[in-house]
Design goal:
It is built from four helices and 13 strands. It has 187 residues and is α+β, with helices and mostly antiparallel strands. The protein has one domain: M1 Pyruvate Kinase, Domain 3, CATH 2.40.33. The strands form three sheets. Strands 1-6-5-11-8-7-13 form a seven-stranded mixed β-barrel. It has a three-stranded antiparallel sheet with strand order 4-3-12, with no helix packed on it. Helix 2 links the parallel strand 5 and strand 6. The longest helix has 9 residues. This is MOSC domain-containing protein. It comes from Terrihabitans rhizophilus. It holds the Pfam family MOSC.
Length: 187
């Protein structure tokens, strides 16, 4: 997919949430996004940072990780490497198909279903909990680009710009920010 093609779209394959802080999330028939907060009923819901290690450093930081999206094409790649990963296993809220999430610039807005809009804030930085889930998985979620730079493959983080209910089958439309575009970095 060419990220400059603003008519490009993908779809939602699965949605997940879980109250409290655990590695994986439960697949649900639908989830509701709340403007400025995140996923209703999810442990990462909030205006300020909810990730435990980040709260320990500074609980007043803005929550730039309200909604976690992963591209299902990653699961295909992991399966080819001998890993079994299902929807919700890596803690994502939205599993997508047909969008090169990692190639989107910072500030891209994703219109999901009839109402919801999230703004991409950055890349999820894989942590050591991934190897506790499946040994060797963390290495599989990291790669190198042609210049030798680190590539984080474990999805993107976003904030909710406009709330709404989303469910599997919903279309995802891409709205790129005004240029120049900034490459995603970890958040």
């Amino acid at each position: 997919m060419n990220i400059e093609d603003q008519s490009a779209s993908g779809s939602v394959l699965s949605v997940s949430r879980r109250p409290g802080h655990s590695f994986s999330k439960d697949v649900e028939p639908s989830i509701t996004l709340l403007e400025g907060l995140g996923v209703e009923g999810d442990g990462h819901l909030g205006v300020t940072v909810q990730h435990r290690s980040r709260v320990a450093r500074d609980p007043t930081q803005p929550n730039l990780r309200q909604v976690h999206l992963i591209h299902s094409e990653l699961f295909d790649e992991l399966a080819a490497g001998g890993f079994t990963v299902r929807a919700g296993d890596l803690g994502e809220n939205v599993l997508t198909r047909g969008i090169a999430l990692l190639d989107l610039p910072e500030g891209t807005r994703l219109h999901i279903g009839p109402d919801a809009v999230v703004e991409v804030t950055g890349l999820r930085n894989p942590c050591s909990q991934i190897d506790a889930f499946q040994p060797g998985l963390m290495s599989a979620l990291l790669g190198r680009d042609a210049q030798g730079g680190l590539v984080r493959k474990s999805g993107v983080m976003s904030v909710v710009v406009k709330g709404g209910r989303i469910e599997p089958g919903d279309e995802i439309r891409i709205e790129l920010p005004a240029g120049p575009h900034r490459k995603l970095d970890k958040v």
